[in-house]
Design brief:
Distance between the termini: 25 Å
Strand order of the largest sheet: 1-2-3-4
Strand content: 35-45%
Number of helices: 0
Radius of gyration: 13 Å
Length: 89
Amino acid sequence: SLTDDWYWNGLPVWSPNGEYIVFVSTRDENWPDNFQLSENTDFRLWIMDADGENQRPLSDRTFALDGVPAGVPQDEAWGWIEERLLWLP
């Protein structure tokens, strides 16, 4: 598994230098009983060290799950590709 918490975490992308993993998570969601993922779920980009330590959000911006995380080769920016647009935090 990507992390050892109970949130949904997925779509991991390695940074080009191999030092970080950027992933999508439902952290900060208020999960009611019997919660299921839907198009109304708020997802956020998170980053962590390659060993899984130092997990932190990349921004406060949330997204629907209809895109994928993406970065630039120099690790200077990460964003979310949605309908061929790159949204940067």
